[in-house]
Fold:
Amino acid sequence: MKIFDRLPPMDHLRSEKMSFVQLIMPVESAHRAISYLGDLGLLQFKDMNEDKSPFQRTFVNQAKRCAEMSRKLRFFNEQISRASLAVSARPAVQPDIDLEHLEVKLGEHETELHEMNSNSEKLQQSYNELLEFKLVLSKAGSILASSHSHASSPDTELDENIYHNDAIDDGMSLLEQGARMETSNGAGLRFICGIISSSKEMMFERMLFRATRGNMFFNRAPAGELVTDPISGDQVEKTIFVVFFSGEQAKGKILKICDAFGASCYPVPEDRTKQLQIIREVTSRLSDLEATLDAGLRHRNEALAAIGSQIWRWSLMVRKEKAVYDTLNMLNFDVTKKCLVGEGWCPTFAIPQIKDALQRASLHCNSQVGIIFHELDAIESPPTYFKTNKFTGAFQEIVDAYGVAKYQEANPAVYSVITFPFLFAVMFGDWGHGICLLMGALVLIAREKKLGSQKLGSFMEMAFGGRYVILLMAIFSIYCGLLYNEFFSVPFHIFGPSAYKCRDSSCSDAHSTGLVKYRDPYPFGVDPSWRGSRSELPFLNSLKMKMSIVLGISQMNLGIILSYFDAKFHGNSLDIRYQFIPQMIFLNSLFGYLALLIVIKWCNGSQADLYHVMIYMFLDPAGDLGENQLFWGQKQLQILLLLMALVAVPWMLFPKPFILRKLNKERFQGHSYRFLGTSEMDVESEPDSARIRHDDFNFSEVFVHQMIHSIEFVLGAVSNTASYLRLWALRCSSLSSFFLDICISVFLTFVFPGYFQLGSFRTFDSILRETSVACLGVREYFLIRCYFFDVSLNFGTTHQVILLLLCCFTFSEKSYVWAFSGPLFV
Structure:
């Protein structure tokens, strides 16, 4: 026992012990104390103002100010993103910032940016109007000139544009100029020139045709330049149009339709000389506006760059202050209204650190009264807290995504450190792919300090957070790849020569009839001669299917064993006697026996049909096994195991609810009793589910709850055993072998007939295969979707159960293997 006492504490195997504490803080030091405790991150406060709405709390105004500053920071981020500017990396040292000064500074920056955006939009709108006017003058002038050249009839009269030339005033905007239209009621042919978005062109023309009943002529030409939207900043493609019509009524309809479709109309004189003069004036004004826009854009980018260099620090400060005031809103004032009282949970080991932080807060605030900290007794169940580091953090997050273990339960993340990457490798094991994945993981680990201080994308951030998960996945993939003897789906003689040889010297060609076994089995993994043989698929499928079942049953057994240690740790004898024992009996009487048969069949090379054995174990337990008998006394053992499985079901269903009812009656009648433990402390150490009080004890609910658990366990034992076959199924769905055999080989055979006989083409074939399959395989490595978490309802009280199983298999092959009629790569 002294040897075990000298062992280091296993901090990660079980959640930390928690203490319920109370803090009494003076108002002047409460803010700094909460800030220091937040930096420590080891105290979870209880909300003592649950009956109050968020607007009725003490520090609601400060929280609103922080929320407003957060809105301004989001606005800055949006502006920086729209300007395509980079945000500076996180600074190593975070100096303190005064919140009042920061609030004023953010307000000034926001006002400045709003003014610059408003001026930029106005300038951009004016620039767009002038640019559109220039485009309309150039394109519509060509259209009008073409119309004049084709006007051959003296009766065809082309009146002036509905916009008089004398209506153009240099002091008016173009839209105002466009509003001054001719009011003449002449009956001659008129025209309207304008510009519209190309996406609306067809609908616009159709609407004009219907509104005028076909009494118009629509002519168009592409603008040739993209116009910048002043609000969104997007480049919009536009089309110049000229509409010829006759009549004042048609003119009104056309103008209304132009306004509805967002088309801009501009006055275009018929005289080509006047058109050129206006184009020159507009070009000059465009140059001035372009210079003004460029200067404003540079000034805006400089302001945004200055904000971007500090925005991460400001965001951190605002989030921290918001969290501090949200926590302060969870506290209550004492009767003197001079102190804040808070309660919460903290790990027992963190109490000295919390006291030190509180003492520093009082010292830095020069408070006359210290902060009072003491422990209390709690009725409710404590929260769960696991200590993690950069290596175990990713595994803990994976487990917590499926469910958090109860207080003081075994931590499944400890086991998933090994089993998660190992089961991944079972599905996608290939030591060539594993090497590629290993190099990527090593790059992430070697640059973790640099990458940790940068803002990463969503995918890169996920990969960086799981860099140690990827590392272990790569290592186990190399291991399982060596076990499967696959390097980009190509086998190699790594551990010695094959155990098979040709029957005669003539089998070196592609028409060999078979190989015979002439030496001991291949030392490690699968013999490379299986590759390309007729029996490759049945043999490997059978092997991997049986491996999946053995792994699954072992993992489920581990879950039940962990439930035993949890029940023993909490002193719950009922769960040990009426859950752990019958569950172990039921699972291993049926499925554990199946795993045993698989191992026995592997060892003695029997040809027994395990499907037949398991089916007739239920249909005809006393029947003769015949050639399916693997060992002496197998029939008697199967009858015994079947009876044990039948007894285990009522064993786990009925006793526990009736014993709990009996104990509850004894408590109600005032009798002195104990739970089925070893001391009087067992009652206090019982978990919440076992400490049943009379006022909330309901026998029907307890019985139904136990019945549901029992049914779920029985059904889950069957369904989860079948689910573990996904390890084999996903292994079969690997695309590397298909891509190698079908795509590349068939392609090369079609392009280069007889390439199998040429060494150069064989080398080219290998290089192309390995390169292509490497790219495909590394991508497929990230398609993992099958890691099994067996919940406590099925296998014990632990929320997830995982298996550490690292066995080195040497496979027992049959006496010979039929060769494929094509080339055999060995």
The chain has a mean pLDDT of 77. DSSP finds 26 helices and twelve strands in the chain.
